[in-house]
Amino acid sequence: xxxxxxxxxxxxxxxxxxxxxxxxxxxxxxxxxxxxxxxxxxxxxxxxxxxxxxxxxxxxxxxxxxxxxxxxxxxxxxxxxxx
Amino acid sequence: xxxxxxxxxxxxxxxxxxxxxxxxxxxxxxxxxxxxxxxxxxxxxxxxxxxxxxxxxxxxxxxxxxxxxxxxxxxxxxxxxxxxxxxxxxxxxxxxxxxxxxxxxxxxxxxxxxxxxxxxxxxxxxxxxxxxxxxxxxxxxxxxxxxxxxxx
Lengths: 83, 152
Hints:
- The complex is a heterodimer of chains A (83) and B (152).
- By secondary structure, chain A is of the alpha+beta class.
- Chain A contains three helices and five strands.
- In chain A, strand 3 and strand 4 (60-62) form a beta hairpin.
- Chain B is of the alpha+beta class and 152 residues long.
- In chain B, helix 2 (56-71) runs antiparallel to helix 3 (102-119) and helix 3 (102-119) crosses helix 4 (141-148).
- The longest helix of chain B is centred in the last third of the chain and has 18 residues, at 102-119.
- Chain B is built from four helices and eight strands.
């Protein structure tokens, strides 16, 4: 699946997007965050305050318990500040 | 009901957008326009940089528009949100809500702005007068509270 990052999440991780194959057992957005945090300090920094970073699956906002099976694009970003 | 949703870097013209929304219509009795502008925050800011999530921004605004249509008898909506570098005094966002009567138009415009601020995937970063890129703007709890007053 493709992961995309925005605003300070993008800056902390140091990339705009990447293609990943999550290992077996990574079933929810929360599992995915836990796995990403184990991949390096840039991910640990981006997700240091769990519950702050928001997620979307295929352009729809989701909660951490959302299942990721079948997702094509998962986005991580800070709380929104548009308008 | 016709809804126009645009995400663009270019400025917009409120009068021209209002004319487009009402042209040829005899059933619209009220148009409420909200324009959000870039402030200089007491002279500190040179610009706001707006980042967005292409594809999701349009999709999320369309979902918010569908909710507004369910709640109020609207005859037309226009929502324009800019991205990129925006200088103090320039416009950032436009919401036009058209209905037969003012109450639906006022309420729908207010609802749309509250939901846009909390749900549409846009992020602001400050650029300061001294030439440095400042901090990402933090989300305000008051924006979430403003949205929650609409319930559901």
